[in-house]
Amino acid sequence: MERIKLLFDVFAKVTTCTLFGAAVFCLIFSPGVTFGTEMLWQLLLVSFLTSAGTLMYTDEIKKNSMKIRCIIHYLMVNVIVVFCGLWFGWMEADHLTEVIGMLVLIAVIFLTVSVLSWKKVMKEADLMNARLAEYQGEK
């Protein structure tokens, strides 16, 4: 159940950042563009697909394994977003600046979501440690 909560927490963060990133991307590469409601469903789908990578993280993995999984997750996110971006027509493969812009946005969003998630986990760990210390002090 905790992993599902984590998935939806990350999904909410990714969706928010993706919406912001899409707005920035459109502002830079296609100012004045209009699009239909299908774009909202596309953003939700891409956000979910990229968030699903968090399921490969478990509590019992070692530090080196965590780094490797983080790199794999980042690469998966890049492949998913670029593939979907080309498939949905968000960018053209022959427009190198758009592809590079998308890769930069992916990096910024991945870093933002990772930092926000890490801060949340650290806050929860600090709270658990404080409660444990309080519990041990009562004995």
Give the class from helix and strand content and strand pairing.
mainly alpha
Number of domains: 1
Rg result: 18 Å
Order of helices and strands: HHHH
Give average pLDDT, whole number: 88
- The fraction of residues in strands falls at under 5%
* Tertiary shape: elongated
Fold and architecture overview:
With 139 residues, the chain is an all-alpha fold. It has one domain. It has helices at 2-29, 38-51, 63-87, 96-138. Helix 1 (2-29) crosses helix 2 and helix 3 (63-87) packs antiparallel against helix 4 (96-138). It is elongated, with a radius of gyration of 18 Å. The mean pLDDT is 88.
Structure keywords:
139 residues, mainly alpha, 79% helix, single chain
Can you lay out the helices and strands and say which pair or pack?
Elements: H1 2-29, H2 38-51, H3 63-87, H4 96-138
Brief digest:
The chain is an all-alpha fold. The chain contains four helices and no strands. Helix 1 packs antiparallel against helix 4.
